[in-house]
Amino acid sequence: MRKNSLKRAAAAVAVSALALSASTVSAFAATNLEDKQTAYNATVPAGEATTKPVMTVTKKVFATADEAQGQVVDVTFSISGAEEKYCTTGFHVNWDNRLTVVPQRGGVYGKAGDALEVLSSKQEANGASGVFFTTMGSEDMGFDGVMWTVQLKVPDDAKAGDVFPIDVWYQHDGTKGDLFVDNKKTDAGLLMQAWFFANGINSSSNPSTDPYLVKADATFADGYIAIEGAAATTTSTTPTTTTTTTTTTTTTTTTTTTTTTTTATTSSTTSDTTSATTTAAGTTTATTTAAGTTTTKKGSGTGSDSPKTGVTGVGVAVAGLAVAVGTAFALKKKED
């Protein structure tokens, strides 16, 4: 019974965790901006555009919700690649309806920038979260730079992970459409216009790869105000490493060997005449008369010196024989 209760509790926790995870993802991805882009519908001359303008919209990221809440952000719409190539323009802008526009003097939404200082400009509000911007002139005196600035306020209840997309889009109502062309609408100007709405702004056919817009499911948009997501809590364990250092002491003993060479001198005394005298008690006394003394040559240290042969050897043999004879004679006498 208890085991079943534990299983049901675990299942409930798992379902709750899954629901919380899903709600977190959807909250981060949610946006109140619709894709209003329509297909470009205008006569395009043959050839390729030589002027390729690109629109850049502010991308502002706050680190925390506290920093973002209630803040007013200057959102700029800048053009590049069309210096003194355009004159008549008209395009639509929309932003996430959680943002609040802060009107300029006269109640208008946007303020013309330096890129339009020579051209005449006009704008028309398109609800609370959109505007239609236009320019006109007698010459192609549109410059690169900031065309328009709109001030947008972040909601007071903004939270970590929120993304508020801002979109520039093309509209065609069946009879007329938005413009980005030169004063005389030349072929070069019309090619420039077609390229701008197809490639110079983001759309469903030219989606953004910006990670904030991808997560917000608004890749058709061009800019945004965003707040970084809550940082994940990471527990880091640092392993403790103990290092044992062993010191080995090696003692070297040097043995000094002293070699002493001793030179031996061997003296041999040889007797040329040996006589034996037998006493009455039977003791034989051998008397050796030295005929000469021979001293061996000092050794060279490499081996023993060999004794000399010749006279000395014969003398030793004779002396031995005399002793033997004397002994035999004494024994003979005693028997008698």
Describe, in plain words, how this protein is organized in 3D:
The protein starts with a helix and ends with a helix. The protein has helices spanning 2-29, 65-68, 187-200, 211-215, 311-335; strands at 54-57, 59-62, 72-80, 88-95, 100-102, 110-112, 120-125, 130-136, 145-153, 163-169, 179-181, 223-227, 267-278, 284-295. The chain has five helices and 14 strands. It is globular and about 50 Å long. Residues 6-29, 244-325 and 327-336 have low confidence and may be disordered. The longest helix has 28 residues, at 2-29. The strands form three sheets. Strands 2, 4, 7, 8, 10, 11 and 12 form a seven-stranded mixed β-sheet that branches. Strands 1, 3, 5, 6 and 9 form a five-stranded antiparallel β-sheet that branches. It is an alpha+beta fold.
